[in-house]
Amino acid sequence: MPKDSLLEYFQPDSRPPDEIAIAWRHGYRMMRWSYGDLLRTSAQFARELEARGIAKGDRVLLWGENSGQWIAAFIGCLLRGAVAVPMDAIAEKSFASRVAQQAGVQLAVVGRDLSLPGFAGFIMDLEELHESVSGRPSGNFLPPRTGRSDPIEIVFTSGTTAEPRGVVLTHGNILANLEPLEREIIRYRRVERIFHPLRFLDLLPLSHVFGQLLGIFLPQILGATSIFLDTLNPNEIIHAIRAERVSVLVTVPRLIESLQNQIERDLAASGGIEKFKRAFREAEGKHFLRRWWTFRKIHRRFGWKFWAMISGGAALPSNSEQFWNRLGYAVIQGYGLTETTSLISVNHPFRLGRGSIGKTLPGLEMKLSVDGEILVRGENVAAGYWKDARLLPVLDSEGWFHTGDLGEKDANGTLYFKGRLKNVIVTPEGLNIYPEDLEAELRKEPGVRDCVVIGVDHDGNAVPCAVLLLRDSSEDAAALMRRANERLAPFQQMSHWIVWPEKEFPRTSTQKPILPRIREVVQTELSGAQNESGVAATSSGTPGEILSKIPRGATTLAGEAARLPASSIERVELLSALEDRYQVDLSETDFTAADTVAALERLLDEPQAHAIKYRYPRWAQSWPVRWTRAAAFYLLQRPAMLLLAWPRVKGRENLRGVNGPLLVISNHVTYLDPAYILAALPRRLRLRLAVAMEGERLAAMRNPPPGTGFFTGIIDRIKYLLTVALFNVFPLPRRSGFRKSFAYAGELVDRGSSILVFPEGELTSNGEIAPFRAGIGLLATRLRLPVLPMRIDGLFELRQARKRLAGPGRVRVTIGAPVACEETLAAEEIAGELERRVAALGAE
After folding, report:
1. Alpha-carbon span 72 to 332, nearest angstrom
2. CB 175 within 8 A of CB 308
3. Got the DSSP string for 318-382?
4. Apex CA 541: angle with CA 255 and CA 590, to 5°?
5. Which value, in Å, is the radius of gyration of the alpha carbons in the chain?
C-alpha cells in the first residue's frame, strides 16, 4: 500500500532499537549508533528546530562529511517538516554561501573546518550536534501533517562558478523510487535473514541523492547498517570491508577501478600476477562457485560476507565490470539523475545484464527520442527547480524530462548508456562520435591509468582529443594511441591527444572528471597559447596545492623548490591527503625522505621500495591469550615485582568511577616500565591495557636481521611471542608506518582496550623527561579518549646503579587526574600540555 510520507519509515518501532544503524570513522575510531540512538538524536534535533522557530517548509543547510550526526540532522528536518539543503563537503565556501542566500536558509549545521561567510542565520557545529541537543526531550514528538507533495530537500547541483540551481525533491519523489525496491526486497526476505544484518559501505556523499538512497533509506527498509569512511584509499577500503564485515560496497566507477588496480598491484608485487592472469582467462564461462573457489584468496582478503558492488554516478567501464564478475562478485549498476531522485533504471542483483544499466523502475515511463536521448516521466521526477522561492518547471510541454543522456534499449527493454548528448562529437561528415566508445578502447591499453575524450575545435571542425593519465611517465603515449586507433572505425580515430600535465584530473566529490576545466587546458595546449597562470594552474589537487591546505604548512619557497613541512603531524595529514587524492599507497619510508615538492612529484611518478611491514597482533586480543595474560600477571609478574621493586602508588583516587578506555601516558625510564604501570592500575583497567612499543625493535625480534645466529634468532622470536602475549604490545614505529599503528590503536579502543604510550619515544638519558612528540597530541584528539598522565620515579636511579633489587616503595608510580583534550587545539600544543602534566606529577 502506498505510503503518505517518508515519516512512516522512521517510527520508533520501525526497527529493533539495539541493532546498529550507522558506523562512521571519526579520527582513529569507528563510532556506532543503534537505531534507537539515531532516532533519539533525530527527535532531539527536531526539538531544537522547534525551539529555534524553524517550522514546516523552512530551510536548513547541512554541510559536512558523512556521519551519524549528518543523518540525524537530516531525519530531524524530516520529523520537523523542515526542508534540508544538503551541501557537498568539498564545496567552496563562496558557493555554499550563495546557496544559503538563494535558498533562504535560516539555520546551518556545518562541519568544524567549514565556514559560511556572510551568513546571518544561526550555525550549529555538526561534530557536536549530539552533545548540543542531548538536553532536549526525545519522546512524544508530534511531526506536522505531511503528504507526498511536500518538499523534503533542495539539492543544488551546479559547479562552483555557475549560478546555484536547486532541485526540489518531495516525499513522493523519493517514495516513487523506494516503493518498487521495497516490493522486490520483500520477495527475498528469507534469503536476507540468513545474512542479516546486511552492511553497506557507502562511499558516496550524503549530499547526493544516490548516497542518501543507499545510506539512509534502503538500510532503514532492510534493517541494515550503513558504514561511512573518511578515506578513498583502496587499501584502507579493503581493510574496512573485511574488518566491518561489509556485504555491499556503494561507490562510483572510479573507486571500483582503483580497487581493481590495487589488487593487480599487490599481485604484481608478490610475483603472482602471471598466475592470476592465466587463472582469470581460464575462468571465463565457468560456474560461479568454480570461479569463487579459484579466486578464494581475494575473497578471503575482502572477507567472506562481501558479495556485491553497487556502482552509480557514471557508467562503469566494461573491463572493470568483467574483472569483478569473473572473480565471483555481483556488480550492480544503476542510472539516474538528481532530477529523477537518483534512479531511472537499475540492474537486478540476481539477474545482471552485462554492460547494461538495468531496466526502468516500475511506475516510471521511459522512451528514447529520435536522436537517442533518454526521456522519462513519473512521480520520481523532481517537483521543479528552486529559483527565488519559486518553482521552475523541469518537464517539457508533454510532461517528459529530458536527461541529456543518450541510451539504447534491447529487445528485453534493458537500457544501455551511450554517453552525454552535449558531449557527442559531430564530424564534418555529419557522423556522431561517442566519447565513451573511444575511452573504452583507450582503457584497454595497460599503460593508461585513466582518460577522457572531449571534442575540441580544430580548423573550424569538431575533432576528438584524448586526454591521458599514464601509469608511468616513461609510457610511449604515441604507441598506445596508435594501437587504440587501430581498433576504431576510421571516422572515430583520434588524431589529437595530450598527456595531462598533472598527476590527476580535477574531479568532483563523486570522482567525475570536471570536463570544462579539462577542455580549457586542452584548447589552450592545442592552440599553443599559455594563460597567465600556466597549464598546471587549472588542475586541482596537485601536491603543491594540497600542501598549501595543510595547517601550518606554509613555505617560504615557491613551486617545486617548496619545502615539505617538518612537523610529523603535518606530514601525516599531507600523506593521507595525497593517498586519498591519487588513490595510491605511498611508501612512508620514501615519503619521510622527500623534503621538497619536486621530490614528492618524483615519488608519485616512480615505483618505490616498500616500507617495513609491521605485524599487528590481533591474535593477542583473543580470549585464550587474554586469560593467559591475566594468569601470568598474578602468577608470575606480580610475585617477581614483589621481589624486585614493588612500587608505591599514589593518586589511585583519581580513578574512582573511571572504567576506560583511556589513553595512558608516562615518562619512559626502562623497558620494564609497562610492568610498573600495570601494577599501579586497578584490575578493571589493567587487564584491558595495550602497550605501544618501538616498532623497529619489535620487528627485529619477530624477524631477526641477516647475520643473526640460529639459536639467537630462535630466542628473539620466543621473546617476541612472550612480549606480545604477556604485555599485549603492538608496534609504534619511530620513522614510518605510524599511521597504521594509530589506526590499529583505534581498533583496540573500539574493542574496549586502553592504550599505553610513552610520548618521549625513547628511554631517558639523564632522568629528565624529554620533549613529548607531537604524535601524542594527534592520538589524543583522534582517539577521543581521556588522557591519564602517570609518572615513574626512582627507577632511573636503580638503572644508573645497575641494581636489580630494591626495597618496597623505592620505585614510585604517580597517577594524575584524567584530562580531556580539545580537538580544536594543535597537536603540538596538546603534547606540550601533557608533558607539563606528567612533569608536575613529580612534585606531588
Report:
1. 28
2. no
3. HHHHHHHHHHT-EEEEEE--GGGTT-SEE-BTTB--TT---EEPTT-EEEE-TT-EEEEESTTS-
4. 85
5. 29
Nearest to 249 by CA among 300, 316, 199, 197: 199
Give residue-wise pLDDT tens across range 404-432.
888 888 877 788 887 777 777 866 655 67
Pairing mode of beta strands 345-346, 359-360: antiparallel
φ, ψ dihedrals at 489, nearest 5°: -65, 155
pLDDT of 503-537, one tens digit each? 888 887 777 888 888 888 888 887 764 333 333 33
Residue from 314, 400, 396, 386 nearest 357 by CA: 314
Give the CATH number of domain 618-843; options: 3.90.800.10, 3.40.1190.20, 3.40.50.300, 3.40.1130.10: 3.40.1130.10
Cell of 175: 517514495
pLDDT in the model for residue 429? 56
* Helix ranges, 13-92 (H): 35-51, 68-80
Q: CA-CA distance, 353 to 662, in Å (whole number)?
A: 52
Please state whether 389 falls in left (phi above 0), alpha (psi between -120 and 50) or beta: left
DSSP for 220-284 reads HHHT-EEEE-S---HHHHHHHHHHTT-SEEEE-HHHHHHHHHHHHHHHHHTT-HHHHHHHHHHTT
pLDDT band at 773 (very low <50, low <70, confident <90, very high): confident
* Cis peptide bond upstream of 506, omega within 30: no
DSSP string, 560-612: GGPBPP--HHHHHHHHHHHHHHHT----HHHHHH--BHHHHHHHHHS--PPPP
| β-pairing verdict for 812-815 and 754-757 | unpaired
DSSP string across 406-438: EEEE-TT--EEEEEEGGGPEEPTTS-EE-HHHH
Candidates 1.10.1200, 3.30.1490, 1.25.40, 3.30.1890; CATH matching 543-605: 1.10.1200
Domain ranges, ordered by start, for the chain? 424-525, 543-605, 618-843
Over the stretch 659-692, which tens digit does the pLDDT of each residue have?
879 999 999 998 889 999 999 999 999 989 999 9
In this structure, what are the phi and psi dihedrals at residue 407, rounded to the nearest 5 degrees? -145, 170
Superfamily of domain 424-525: ANL, C-terminal domain (3.30.300.30)
For 595, half-sphere exposure in the C-beta direction (CA atoms, 13 angstrom radius) is: 2
Per-residue pLDDT reduced to its tens digit, 241-267 = 999 999 999 988 878 988 998 898 888
Q: pTM for the complete prediction?
A: 0.81
Residue from 314, 659, 675 nearest 514 by CA:
314
Beta bridge partners of 456: 463
**Calpha distance 556→568 (Å, rounded):** 19
Q: Are 364 and 348 in contact (CB under 8 A)?
A: no
